[in-house]
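Comment on this:
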Amino acid sequence: MTIHEPATDLAPRRDPLHPVLHRVLHPAGWPPWLQVVAIFACARLITTAALLILGGTLTAQSRGGVDPEFFDYSAIWDGDWYRIISYYGYPAQLPVDLSGAVRQNPWAFMPVYPFLVRALVTITGLRWSVAAVGVSLAFGFGAALVIYRIMRLRLPHASALFSVLLFSIGPASFILQMAYAESMQLFLLALALLLLIQRRWAPLFPVVAVMALTRPTGLAFALALGCYWIVRYLRRRSDPFPRRTMLVTGGLVLYSLAMGLAWPAIAWAVTGSLHAYTDTELAWRSGWIGQDELQLFTPWFAAAAMWFANPGGPVVVVVVVALVAAFALSFALPSVRALAIELRLWLASYGLYLLAVFFPQTSLVRLLVPMFPFVGALAAPRSRAYRIGIVVLLQGLQLLWLSVTWGPIQAYWTTP
């Protein structure tokens, strides 16, 4: 007699939650936008932890005072100026010292970011510092998402994500969560570059306008657009440049130029001083080299003389020329040449803009952040050792720079 035992199902029972849990626990299966958000969020958590630790080391002589509240601590330095602008606007009369030289004042800072923060404060009732940090963080996340979109046009998914990681942990990336306008500027700049690459001309006009009144970007972007027009014209046989597009992009060049000059013109109209904006900007440099006039392409030589203990003229020239040459030669690297032509034109134009008008001091690290397209070149090598090494290097430089600028020793030379 054969005994038949009941059949048993040896196959494991499928938990209905298993696919969901699997997806949650394996980030590689997340949608790209969520991976970008996770990378940027983790980077900001590290910065936040560093800020909390640094806050406990401050002394009465520190810019942030002893044991500052986190959000107030995140709104020092330029955040103080943006707070003033939010509540009091801009002075109709430029403040001057006993010698008649223009002193530091709000006209050096553009209005979109502080007015947006003030609007958020009015609507929500949040403290100014909380609202300012929130706005910066929101635009920081937005910038990371747009940068991923830009990099994905030329790079595989993994390399585009790595570009976002490098952007998120760069030496001055902590500024993306401070009460500064940089994160808003970077979002608008990345969006403008993406629209330029996609040749979507109509939305570029409002983006350029807002960007030019957020941070001084309009003139450099106008130069990049002008170079783009020339490149398209020279390549018109292989890449058609219809007359209508030629006229639209030409108008966009002039429009960006006008927007780049709009803020100095507004300062002139309100204060009655033609040089209100440039004189105000020069006031920040007077603490380093005294009062001076704006002379294009001379600030780097003056800075080299100061930083290198006033060496002889030939030494200063060699230092500046070497830096310019190194920057120019970087465009010959295959990883940089692989970037979209629009990105390379922006990098070259912004570099020329900094060379023409900026006096190099410790804020230079922050002012280099708009050169974010370089992260696409840095992300090109796929060696695991290289990628681990550069992540450790950049994260270490960020923590070092954060401690120098936001730490207990805050003198004029530690300005972020």
Notes: DSSP finds 19 helices and no strands in the chain. The CA atoms of residues 163 and 379 lie 5 Å apart. The chain has one domain: 31-414.
